[in-house]
C-alpha cells in the first residue's frame, strides 16, 4: 500500500476511535511518492458535514476579482472564521479586517500544504491564475502559475480529501469550437496560454476524480462583471471599464469591435453559482465541468443600455488586435442546459438588471465618499 494511502487509513482509524495520539505524516514528495501510484480502484473516505459542522474553506488568489466577494458570501453561510482568503499581495484594510487572511504562494508546495493541514481545510477554491491578455504578455509566468501551481493544488487536494473547485472560462474554447451556442462537450483547441491551461485544468481535474477519487468541481465562467473591482487584464474587461469611465469622464474607448458578442454574467450570479456547485450532491453531477451562462451581448448593446443611465456618454472604438483575436475565438453564447438540469442553476440578472445594479453600486459609493 502506498505510504500516503496508509497515512490516510491510519488517520481515519484514529479519528473514528477518538484517539488523541499525535501522528506525523512525512510529505509525499520527500518520499518520492506521487498520487499516480494509487490504484484506480482505491476507495477514499468522503468528507461530509453535519448540519452543525461547516466546511473549512481556503481561497487562493483571493485578492482578484472574485475572491473577496466569494469570501463574503461564504462567511455569511459558514461563519467568518471558517473562510480563509489568501494571496501573495498585501490586502487592503477592509479585506484584512473582514476575516482571516494569510500569505499563500501556490508555487510553494510546502507552504500550501502546511496551510491546508494547520487550518484543517476541507474545501479549496483555487482562483490563482493569470488571465488571458496578461498571460499572453508573459507566457512563462502564466505557465508557472496556471499549470505548475495547479499541479501543487491537485496533489494536496487529493492527499487531504479536499473538495476542490477550479474555475474555467470561455477562454477554454478556440476558433474551431462551435460558437453559438457552445455546448459542454465539444472540440476546444484554445489559442492562448490562459485557455490552454484551463483545458488542462478541466482534463487533469477530471482525471484525478476518476483515478484517485478527488472531489473536483469546475464551472466555465463567462465574462464576469463586478462593480467593486478594477479591470484585471481580461478580454471581457471592457464591460467593467465602461461603467468607471461613464461615471468619471463620460467618455469610453472600447478595445473590441462594436458587434463582438460574448457571454457575460453579473458577479452575484457567478458567486452564487460557485456556492451552489460546491454544495451540490455528488450524485446530482453528471459531469465535473459545467458551462454556466446568464446573458450574451456586444459592446454596442451594452453601450445602448448604459446610455439610458448616462445620456451624455460618448463611446468610441479603438480595436486592440490581440484582444479582438482572442474574443473572435471565444463562444458567442454558452449552452448551460446541463447545469440547469443537474443542480438547478438559474441566473437572476439579465442585461438591464446588470446595468442598473452597477450604477446603483457606484451611486452609493459616491454618496459614501462625499459623506466622509
Overall shape: globular
* Coarse structural class: alpha/beta
Helix content: 40-55%
Total DSSP helices? 14
Helix-strand string: HHEHEHEHEHHEEHEEHEEHEEHEHHH
Concise account of the structure shown:
This protein has helices at residues 3-16, 28-31, 67-78, 93-96, 109-118, 132-137, 139-159, 193-212, 238-248, 267-279, 299-307, 321-328, 337-343, 351-371, and strands spanning 57-60, 83-87, 101-103, 123-126, 163-165, 168-169, 215-221, 223-225, 251-254, 262-266, 289-291, 295-297, 314-317. The chain contains 14 helices and 13 strands.
Describe the structure.
The protein is of the alpha/beta class and 372 residues long. 43% of the residues lie in helices and 13% in strands. The chain has 14 helices and 13 strands. It has helices at 3-16, 28-31, 67-78, 93-96, 109-118, 132-137, 139-159, 193-212, 238-248, 267-279, 299-307, 321-328, 337-343, 351-371; strands spanning 57-60, 83-87, 101-103, 123-126, 163-165, 168-169, 215-221, 223-225, 251-254, 262-266, 289-291, 295-297, 314-317. The strands form 3 sheets. Strands 1, 2, 3, 4, 5, 6, 7 and 11 form an 8-stranded parallel beta sheet that branches. It has a 3-stranded mixed beta sheet with strand order 8-10-12. The protein has a two-stranded parallel ribbon with strand order 9-13. Helix 4 (93-96) links the parallel strand 2 (83-87) and strand 3 (101-103). Helix 3 packs across helix 10 (267-279). The longest helix has 21 residues, at 139-159. It is globular, with a radius of gyration of 21 Å. The N and C termini lie far apart (63 Å). The relative contact order is 0.11. The model is unreliable at 13-33, 36-51 and 368-372 (pLDDT under 50).
Amino acid at each position: 500500500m502506498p505510504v500516503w494511502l496508509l497515512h490516510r487509513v491510519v488517520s481515519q482509524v484514529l479519528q473514528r476511535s477518538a484517539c488523541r495520539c499525535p501522528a506525523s505524516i512525512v510529505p509525499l514528495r520527500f518520499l518520492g511518492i506521487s498520487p499516480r501510484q494509487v490504484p484506480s480502484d482505491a476507495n477514499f473516505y468522503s468528507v461530509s458535514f453535519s448540519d452543525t459542522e461547516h466546511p473549512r474553506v481556503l481561497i487562493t488568489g483571493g485578492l482578484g476579482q472574485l475572491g473577496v466577494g466569494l469570501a463574503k458570501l461564504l462567511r455569511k453561510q459558514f461563519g467568518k472564521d471558517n473562510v480563509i482568503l489568501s494571496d501573495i499581495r498585501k490586502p487592503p484594510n477592509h479585506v484584512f479586517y473582514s476575516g482571516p487572511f494569510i500569505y499563500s504562494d501556490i508555487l510553494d508546495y510546502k507552504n500550501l500544504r502546511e496551510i491546508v493541514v494547520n487550518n484543517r481545510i476541507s474545501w479549496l477554491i483555487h482562483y490563482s491564475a493569470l488571465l488571458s491578455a496578461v498571460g499572453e504578455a508573459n507566457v512563462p509566468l502564466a505557465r508557472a502559475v496556471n499549470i505548475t501551481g495547479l499541479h501543487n493544488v491537485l496533489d494536496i487536494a487529493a492527499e487531504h480529501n479536499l473538495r476542490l473547485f477550479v474555475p474555467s472560462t470561455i477562454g477554454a474554447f478556440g476558433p474551431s469550437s462551435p460558437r453559438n451556442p457552445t455546448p459542454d462537450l465539444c472540440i476546444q483547441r484554445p489559442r492562448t496560454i490562459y485557455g490552454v491551461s484551463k483545458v488542462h485544468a478541466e482534463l487533469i481535474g477530471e482525471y484525478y476524480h476518476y483515478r484517485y477519487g478527488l472531489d473536483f468541481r469546475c464551472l466555465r465562467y463567462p465574462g464576469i462583471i463586478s462593480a467593486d473591482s478594477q479591470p484585471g487584464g481580461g478580454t471581457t474587461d471592457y464591460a467593467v471599464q465602461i461603467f468607471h469611465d461613464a461615471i468619471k469622464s463620460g467618455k469610453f474607448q472600447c478595445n473590441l469591435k462594436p458587434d463582438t458578442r460574448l457571454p457575460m454574467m453579473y458577479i452575484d450570479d457567478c458567486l452564487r453559482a460557485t456556492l451552489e456547485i460546491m454544495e451540490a450532491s455528488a450524485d446530482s453531477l453528471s459531469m465535473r465541468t459545467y458551462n454556466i451562462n446568464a446573458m450574451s451581448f456586444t459592446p454596442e448593446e451594452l453601450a445602448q443600455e448604459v446610455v439610458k443611465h448616462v445620456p451624455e456618454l460618448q463611446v468610441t472604438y479603438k480595436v486592440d488586435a490581440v484582444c479582438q483575436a482572442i474574443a473572435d475565438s471565444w463562444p458567442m453564447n454558452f449552452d448551460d442546459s446541463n447545469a440547469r438540469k443537474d443542480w438547478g442553476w438559474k441566473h437572476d440578472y439579465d442585461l438591464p438588471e446588470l446595468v442598473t445594479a452597477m450604477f446603483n453600486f457606484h451611486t452609493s459609493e459616491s454618496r459614501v465618499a462625499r459623506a466622509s
